[in-house]
TrEMBL record:
GO terms for cellular component: cytoplasm. CDD domains: AdoMet_MTases. This is Alpha N-terminal protein methyltransferase 1. The keyword Protease does not apply. It catalyses: N-terminal L-seryl-L-prolyl-L-lysyl-[protein] + 3 S-adenosyl-L-methionine = N-terminal N,N,N-trimethyl-L-seryl-L-prolyl-L-lysyl-[protein] + 3 S-adenosyl-L-homocysteine + 3 H(+); N-terminal L-prolyl-L-prolyl-L-lysyl-[protein] + 2 S-adenosyl-L-methionine = N-terminal N,N-dimethyl-L-prolyl-L-prolyl-L-lysyl-[protein] + 2 S-adenosyl-L-homocysteine + 2 H(+); N-terminal L-alanyl-L-prolyl-L-lysyl-[protein] + 3 S-adenosyl-L-methionine = N-terminal N,N,N-trimethyl-L-alanyl-L-prolyl-L-lysyl-[protein] + 3 S-adenosyl-L-homocysteine + 3 H(+). It comes from Tothia fuscella. InterPro entries: MeTrfase_NTM1 (IPR008576), SAM-dependent_MTases_sf (IPR029063). Belongs to the methyltransferase superfamily. NTM1 family. Its EC number is 2.1.1.244.
Amino acid sequence: MSGVAVDSSEKPDAAIDHKAAIAHWSNVSADNHGVLGGYPQVSRVDLQGSSNFLAKLRRKSTIHKPSTRLSRTVDCGAGIGRITAGFLSKIAEVVDIVEPVVQLTKVITEGDQFKELRKQGRIGEVFNKGLEDWTPSHQYDLIWNQWCLGQLTDDQLVDYFQRTKDKVTEGGWIVVKENMSTDPEGKDIFDPADSSVTRSDGKFRELFKRVGFKIVATEVQRGMPKELFPVRSYALQVKMKLGMSSYKTATKRK
């Protein structure tokens, strides 16, 4: 979350160490303060921004209209389920969880905050593994990736997208919401604290193109503290599926 990072090499993602990342996240407190890097106050504005972003997508869709719940979604890099509780569970019948740190997912599987959702069957499968090792076994109307893709190398991220792009229902979306590099030369930035990389907007667009994704909407999250990295959301669809979908492209860049 923080902007304290170093550009360690010409290829910063090569420095990613998954074991070091797991160790880092296993030692944070299982609450908003811990998972948000000491900035728990950003949760409210972040969740509202995500809700608004999806609402715009759904208003332009003839398949996933805002008047009905999405059938199944997945919270990737879910942590303690902050996004599931505050956003995804409000717009979907079932939310699956992908998160490698068991200490964090215990909040979802055992915590009182999720007791009613578990009772209602609204929390689906919980996959305790990293995205580099996860292959979806369901079709999803929405695959939500936030503040987690920096733990994957560029090649792992492309492989992950390849595994997930055919697991989206017609007219559905893969959403990426991540920090943006502020390097003046547009380079990616490696952060040794959690062994992650913060990518540039250009790098994300390059990787999306490699996979065959079309950016149907993108915007910068407003209201974040100025000392943090800017945060951008991208709504992605597979190019070959766009012709089958009645979704009206709403791409914008700002």
